[in-house]
Amino acid sequence: MRRPMNAEEQSENERSVVNTRDALREVSITQTVKGDKQVDRTYNFDQVFGAHATQEDIYDDAVRPVVEEVLEGFNCTIFAYGQTGTGKTHTMEGYHDWDDASSDSFADSMPSNAGVIPRAMSHIFAHLKAKGVEHSVKCTFLELYNEEITDLLAVSDLVEGTVEAANAKAPKHPLMEDGKGGVAVKGLEEVAVANPEEIFDHIRRGSAKRRTAETLMNKQSSRSHSVFSVTVHTKESTPDGEDVIRCGKLNLVDLAGSENISRSGAVDKRAREAGEINKSLLTLGRVIAALVAGGGHVPYRDSKLTRLLRDALGGKSKTCIIATVSPAAHSAEETLQTLEYAHRAKSIKNKPEINQRV
Which intervals hold domain Kinesin motor (predicted)? Predict the structure, then answer.
């Protein structure tokens, strides 16, 4: 997904080096090699969204089919990956004026800039209401910062002071093997929700506690990875009088952006944060490379991020990766790395299994 030029890039008269051909599902990037020679590299993906694509376009074409798989009883994961400042959090959350918007406004008419998470939640509850089946919906929201997991929904974490002070005092949650080849987060609060309004309230509260900071590349740069998960249980009767129980889980992952520390201006604490972010994303890249190569050791355990995403990468989950890129020439190197990463990830073969019993 290619975002438009931002105000800073426009003021600096940055040259665009990324072209998208949405209908052909192609992205090309122009590189300058050997002095002034220019070479185009083209990549093909399942979906391509140019600068004029709307949040609704992205949801309907790339995300809606995934959410419908969740409602059928599959585990699914959607995550955004890309350089800092390319629109990952905007794509996943979108609407940031949480305090100025009532929950009813989301349920009744979705704001045009609402992202994947609010749209997916409205979609899930609209489907359950239309089918009229017996159901339960639960959610969790965690933050992974400097290899430590914090529960963004835990009421006990809400203390006075800054976000950083509150999170510093919050308990950290270890990862445990779940006995099924995956991992679970010990002590993570799972909240039951009955309607979209409740889930939007939890998103507001959790998003407000995420660690962000200003860098030269992004006014509000996420300094952590976040995972918002929704589990949907349904029970419906067949014409034969049997009850079919399905359990689908949707993981919505907003990765912190990779960044060039010298360009972002990160120093001291911010530089250490960036180092940890880049380290975990590098491990994610190695996991993807190992899965594509096949047959060898896959270094899931080298970072908590890859352990959390294990089922999404080579496991039983259906996975959608949204790669976000900047069109600007000064970001060409990072953009090329993102496109290479996403193109390799396309080759990973998962083995989804439906969670259903009669």
Answer: 1-348
